Amino acid sequence: MSSLKFILGTAADDHQAGLLAEMKQQLAADPKGEFFYLVPNHIKFATEIEVLNRLKNTAEQDPDQPYAQMKVQVLSFSRLAWYLLRDTPAFQAPRLSPTGLTMLTAQIVNQHQNEMQMFAGEIKRPGFIKELTQQLTELQTARIAPTDYAAIMERAQTWAKDNRQILDDVWQAKLKVIFLVYGEFVKALGDYQDISQIDALLVKYLQQKDLSHAYFYLDRFSQFTARELQIVQALIKNAQATTIALVLDRPYQNQLPDEHNLFYESGRQYYRLAKFAKQTPGVKQLADVMADQPRVTADLQVLDRVLAAQAQMLNELPSAPLQDSQSIQFFTAPNRVAELNLIAAKIRQLVSTGKYRYRDFLILTRHLDGYATMLESVFKAHEVPIFNDLERLMNNHPLVNLIEALFKVYQRHFATSDVMHLLKTGLLIPQQMHDDLGRLVTRKYFQKAVYQTENWCLQYGRTGDDWLSSQRWHFDPNVDAEELRHHPDMQKRDQYASAPLNVVKDYVSGLQKFFSQLDQAENGAAAAKALYGFLVNAGVVKRLEEWSIADSRSDLARAQEPQQVWQVFCNLLDEYVQILGQQQPFLIDEFADLLMAGFEAAQYSQIPSTLDQVVISETGIVQTTTRKVVFMMGATSDVMPEAKSATGLLSDPDRELLNACLDDEQFLPASGVEKMSNEPFLNYLGFMSGRQRLIISAPQIGNDEKPLSMSPYMIDLAMAFDRWDADKKRLKDDLPFMAQPQDTATVAWPFVSTPFAVLGTLMQVKRQALDDHQPLGAAWNFLSELMAQKVKRYDWTAQSLDYTNETTPLPADLAERLYGQWDPEALDARTQALQNGERPGEIAPALQHDTLYASISQLQDYYRNPYEYFLKYGLRIQKREELEISADKSGTFFHDSLDRFMRLLSEQGLALRQLTDDQLQRLTHQAMAWAFDQQPQLIQLTQNYQRLAFRKRQLERLVETMTKVLRDQSKLTRAKNVVTEQKFGVMDLSDQGQQSFAPLIYPLDHGHKVYLRGRIDRVDSVELNQEPYLMVVDYKSGNQQFNMVEAYDGLALQMLSYLNSLSHQLKLNQQSAKIAGALYLHLQNPVFKWEDLSGSLASEELKSHRYRGVLLNDRQLLNDLDQGFDNFKPQILNLRAFKNGNIKANSGMALVDESQLAALLQRNQERIVNAATQIFAGDTSLRPYRLDKRDGLQYSDYQDIYRFDPMLDQKNYRDVLLTERDVQKKLKQESQGEKHE
User: Fold this and answer.
1) Which of 1157, 1101, 1112 has the alpha carbon at shortest distance from 1135?
2) pLDDT confidence band for 155 (50 / 70 / 90)
3) Pfam families, alphabetically (predicted)?
């Protein structure tokens, strides 16, 4: 007769001792017996060592002699199947791995796309195939067959009728699809073995074989799947004896425990198995045994009782004074990194006492993902060896990325983003390749070339067929080949710059050979062979081996990753060929999808933790009970307890309804609701995992910088052990939030660890002491002296305490060589000599670097932040090119279009105000076509990328709007255009034959000078009292406004400099015209809401394009510029007119008299001279301006270089404190001859 016995007890009891006592008796009683100790697979290896050690300790033999036990096997269910079935023919059948099952599911989904309408929006979602495969394997483990569908639906109808409910249509649709796929899934498995079939074979074996001398002991199982339960029932029915240990406070023979009972899951297993034994003939249930040996210390036994009472929500928790105040501890930390640092330091301190080894520690948390990125670095700093118990997915390994990118390059025809994704994996390196200059392409050369090529492709929009073109790439795509042939030096520079581009291009175009093999593949087997051959021939296997060897020197686990990923890839190909290799028709896209679906489920194999390491794991993973100390970290209210619904294809209500429609022997794994009910038990097992000590911790701030609160478990336990201050609502004797300079040795002790780890804390403490102007306390002073003696890097690190975010000015002679160029007069003389066929003389050294050539915007950058000017124009550091139509390119297009539009009017003798809509459209399109011809790279970009094509259309619409606005504005003004795109300071003629204005040249100190060049968008003229008044118009894509303070300070030099250029040219030409002012025109295509339209669309467009700037406050002038003044409603200028004759400037507009304008122009010249002087003096100060809520850091591309902290670097701001009233006052005084700094 078979027997069943339970060994019961709480987590504080030693269940294993009871099981081994049973085993010892049965070993002695049955010499022929075979003994199987079954545990979850996760702890099989560690349990085997522990069981054999304990058996050895109870054996009557010399303890120094080796111990062997042939009759005892420590196995998991899967290893039990292997042990018993390994020689049976059925077990030798080919089997599919979990990744192969995922691939099989993906194939079924592809074949049944039309029937998958319920999940049509999900099919292409990453993770869907994996979730569907998990759902199918859940049905298998629940012992549900595809043929059960009809019975399930019939029971569902009965359930709905009995409960007076209507069955959910969505639930029925989901189940129909899932069972359709499930049926195909089981059919496709055919003769292949999977886990469920192996379980079925095991059950059949147990039912048929003579197990009269077999004894089974089950430990550490709190719940079983339906398949596992079937195996356990077969053991109970057929084995001589089955002994099961459960963490359970008492037997539940006749009824289930309450659902809220802490031990509900264990009680349910007891009830099921006891009921099975009672109903099965030939099985006798023996009397239960209560484990009578404590596994933990007396203090943790008290904790066990407290946790049980806490789960029952008793008002008074049992408590007793702790025998050791250190056995149960609590602390909080500012954040997760600080929490890990304190844990690592504590472990190192305990190990240093000699009473502990690293393997005595277990660190648990509910979920490790919040700590994943910091574990390795923190524990490495403390020199604490760790074993991360969490399984990791392979889907981010470079080999997986390479295969994914390789197929995307094929599918999307060499899209540059896919090509770069492929090359950046680092696994594809040319072998024996030379560039156009004959240089060998090394790994380092190629990797650098890849990034250079990516930048170049982004800049010039190269993609698709460009990679396959027979034409060589040139670093400057617009270079004239004929010009290169006549200039050898230029040709050589082009070859050196272009060689890396063509190396990458040639390598990528070589992929076409592999893609041709794929196209010619008749079936999946041929495609798999081609893919495997490509990777081997491309050196991928060799590269993976190199990585493995490099990693093996420091990290054995990581060294195995390349080999594991390659093996998974080979297995995937094998399984694909076995299942689908000969299937017709063969589709490459499906082949790629199936491979990626397989990788989606692949995980790295974990090496069992056998070294002296600290194990880090999650509370949901079963653990051995041999650890002495447990750290429960991350004990926050958001995860302890965790409130999380089921994830997957079936929701919690879906699963509950399905469970209600199953037979008694069928049941799904726990739903999200059931898991939430089991949360207390999971945490209970976690808290009780250690033998001697428990330390619970919680961070106060999460990784997203949001505050976290302590878990109710943590607070209740702190209250039970008198560690909670109810008035202050915080822990008593909590660890300090951070180390402080005056800490005593006791307070500082939690931060003491390895020299490297302490060094960072010590520097923080010293910085705090310096900031607070206080000396270090004795404890930190002692550590400082000790570190100075022991740590080589101490002095170097300590220098950081004196660090200030300040730059060093350039020596004046270096600044001169960096910024200064040839004197313009000397350059003119040299140019003239060359034109006359004469040999030019040498330029004197004093004239070689005496002139700063600059645009106005460059000097504005200086006033925004001198250091940015140095980076941008001194070191010439540029932002990386992006796949965009940059502001520079779009701005050039706008200016070219509007310039060409105005010139076409002049060439064709047309008046702007008289243009018909058709004429306007024709001229606008001609102008835009010409503008695009000036930037062929824009056309290249927009032809290759639809997103940029859309952006191009936006640019065109904006120009169309602006030409219409210009026409409508011309009907409301007497001003006429004089010239557009007028250059000044440019030494040659444009293609229009338009003479450049003279440069603005201002003398500086020490014989230096500044030479200003630029381009004025438009100059308009209006006649007033038979005297012309000229205005500058500047087109701006942003809503630029004239700000008197910025103009006076130097932050807005541009408009006034244009006026100075215009004034200077008038003097040179001896013209009598006057300067009327300067205006901004906002280039925009505004969007209006219907309800906001107060007038016609045309009038609203005019309002949105009012000019802003600075003008002379002359009523007649303003009337001529904007005829809307006639009825006191200006429509062009951003002004307001009153019937009493007053005019008021709106935001962004300034009205000045002639003396004030002259003072502004003089101030503009002074600011230019000042900026140039400071640049030549070597000023590189990090002094961003700050005005109102704006500063020189906004929109800067160099913030990563600045390392500017707005809080710590307050003194480094250059605050502009002037108001507009101050500026008006200064201008008035300056116009009267007074000078101000």
Assistant:
1) 1112
2) very high
3) ADDB_N, PDDEXK_1
The values of phi and psi at residue 397, to 5°, are -70, 145
Q: How confident is the model at residue 127 (pLDDT cuts 50, 70, 90)?
A: confident
- In eight-state DSSP terms, residue 855 is E
Cis (ω within 30 of 0) for the bond into 641? yes
Q: pLDDT band for position 924 (50/70/90)?
A: very high
**Domain 298-315+322-391+607-644+678-731: CATH superfamily, name plus number:** P-loop containing nucleotide triphosphate hydrolases (3.40.50.300)
- Residue pair 1160/1056 in contact by the 8 Å Cβ criterion: yes
Question: CA–CA separation, 625 vs 362, rounded Å?
Answer: 10
- Output the 3-class SS for 35-88: EEEECCHHHHHHHHHHHHHHHHHHCCCCCCCCCCCCCEEEECHHHHHHHHHCCC
Sign of CA dihedral 1162, 1168, 1171, 1174: negative
Let me know: does 354 contact 320? Beta carbons within 8 Å.
no
pLDDT confidence of 610, banded at 50, 70, 90? low
569: which 2 tokens?
């890839």
Identity of residue 1168: I
The amino acid sitting at 533 is G
Q: CA gyration radius for the chain? A: 41
Rounded Cα–Cα distance for residues 820 and 850 (Å): 5
Instruction: State pTM to two decimals.
Output: 0.81
Residue 994: which pLDDT band, with cuts at 50, 70 and 90? Answer: confident
Q: Identify the burial level of 789 via C-beta atoms within 10 angstroms of its C-beta, where 0-12 means exposed, 13-18 middle and 19 or more buried.
A: exposed
Instruction: Indicate the average pLDDT of the chain.
Output: 91
Q: Which of 208, 321, 252, 220 is nearest to 16 (CA)?
A: 220
* 3-state SS record for 900-931: HHHHHHHHCCCCHHHCCHHHHHHHHHHHHHHH
- Is 298-315+322-391+607-644+678-731 in the same CATH topology as 2-93+196-290? yes
What is the C-alpha to C-alpha distance for residues 11 and 683, in angstroms, rounded to an integer?
Answer: 11
Q: Which residues of 190-220 are buried (b: 16+ CB within 10 A; e: fewer)?
A: eebbbbbbbbbbbbebbeeeebeebbbbbbb
Contact between 956 and 928 under an 8 Å Cβ cutoff? The reply is: yes
Q: Coil, strand, or helix at residue 332?
A: strand
CB atoms within 10 A of CB 46: 20
Q: What is the predicted pLDDT for the residue at 1235?
A: 55
| Rounded Cα–Cα distance for residues 1013 and 856 (Å) | 7
| Mean pLDDT score, 284-291 | 96
Q: Fold for domain 2-93+196-290?
A: Rossmann fold (3.40.50)
| Strand residues in 1049-1141 grouped as ranges (E) | 1074-1082, 1108-1112, 1135-1137
List the chain domain ranges: 2-93+196-290, 98-190, 298-315+322-391+607-644+678-731, 398-601, 754-802, 887-1219
Residue type, 460: Y
How far is it between the farthest Cα atoms of the chain? 129
- HEC string of 269-337 equals HHHHHHHHHHHCCCEEECCCEECCCECCCHHHHHHHHHHHHHHCCCCCCCCCCCCCCCCEEEEEECCHH
Assigned token pair, 780? 């930190």
Residue 989 in this model has a pLDDT that exceeds 50: no
Q: Of 39, 71, 25, which is closest to residue 626 (Cα–Cα)?
A: 39
Q: Look up residue 870 and give its DSSP letter.
A: I
What distance in Å separates the CA atoms of residue 266 and residue 670, rounded to the nearest whole number?
Answer: 13
**Angle at which helices 856-864 and 1154-1176 cross, to 10°:** 70
Q: Reduce the secondary structure of 154-215 to three states and give it as a string.
A: HHHHHHHHHCCCCCCHHHHHHHHHHHHHHHHHHHHHCCCECHHHHHHHHHHHHHHCCCCCEE
Tell me the mean pLDDT in the region 868-886. Answer: 89
Cα distance between residue 277 and residue 711, in whole Å: 41
pLDDT tens, position by position, 1083-1141: 999 887 776 676 677 788 888 899 999 999 999 999 999 998 888 889 999 999 888 87
